[in-house]
Design goal:
The chain is an alpha/beta fold. The chain is about 45% helix and about 20% strand. The chain has helices spanning about 15-25, 40-50, 65-75, 95-100, 115-130, 155-160, 180-185, 200-215, and strands at about 1-5, 30-35, 60-65, 85-90, 105-110, 140-145, 170, 175. Helix 3 (about 65-75) packs parallel to helix 4.
Length: about 220
């Protein structure tokens, strides 16, 4: 599976999700390649910290912020990996456009705030464009850094708004705003590896992985 975690809006937590998903799949025995398509290189930095600490499983990681390079490298090496996870930059970039044409699944994280919901229209236009070139692209939206309360009205209103953006299927597996995700990301870890473990964060990530793998 080739999975892109992307959004044209920055600051939605896509790198944290991409790193967590890559590690989760590697822990499940998959050969995973994480591609950092953002010029900031945050995902690459996280994996470098992981490697320096000797954490296992190791994660193959490369940085290709240029769309043509990303496309050619994935086309040449895709057969070597079970899963390729692409962390695409937080803007309309050549790497994001290349990733959309290559991937099987797009995951768009958004926060329960008006600006994030409005921005879904921008990435929706790119999804429709990619679908005109290739068939089979599935696009999901998931709440990230959602309000911790189970009955948050902001969460509910943001989730409902996704129904007005036709390309996306809403995944009812929100990732809530928890310190565990930030703490793990700072060490190049998944919340699945963090000690002491946060059971709620672990359950949320596991639910998201399961939902994506069934798609």
């Amino acid at each position: 599976m080739i999975l892109t975690v992307g959004n044209t809006k920055g600051g939605v937590g896509k790198t944290t999700l991409a790193v967590n998903l890559a590690i989760a799949r590697a822990r499940a025995g998959r050969d995973v390649w994480l591609i950092d398509g953002d010029r900031q290189g945050t995902a690459q930095t996280a994996i470098s910290l992981r490697a320096e600490a000797g954490r296992q499983p190791g994660i193959a990681c490369a940085t290709y912020p240029d769309g043509p390079t990303l496309r050619s490298q994935v086309q040449q090496q895709r057969a070597k990996f079970d899963d390729i996870i692409i962390d695409a930059g937080g803007r309309d970039s050549t790497s994001l456009r290349a990733a959309l044409v290559l991937c099987d699944v797009l995951l768009v994280p958004f926060q329960p705030r008006s600006y994030d919901v409005w921005a879904l229209g921008d990435i929706a236009a790119l999804v429709n464009e990619a679908r005109s070139i290739r068939d089979g692209l599935r696009a999901f939206a998931v709440l990230n850094c959602a309000d911790p309360g189970e009955t948050s009205s902001d969460n509910a209103e943001a989730a409902a708004a996704v129904t007005d953006v036709p390309p996306f299927e809403y995944l009812a597996t929100p990732i809530r705003r928890r310190k565990a995700f930030a703490n793990a990301a700072g060490a190049g870890l998944s919340v699945l590896e963090l000690k002491p473990q946060d059971p709620k964060a672990t359950a949320e990530l596991t639910a998201l992985v399961n939902a994506l793998c069934k798609s």
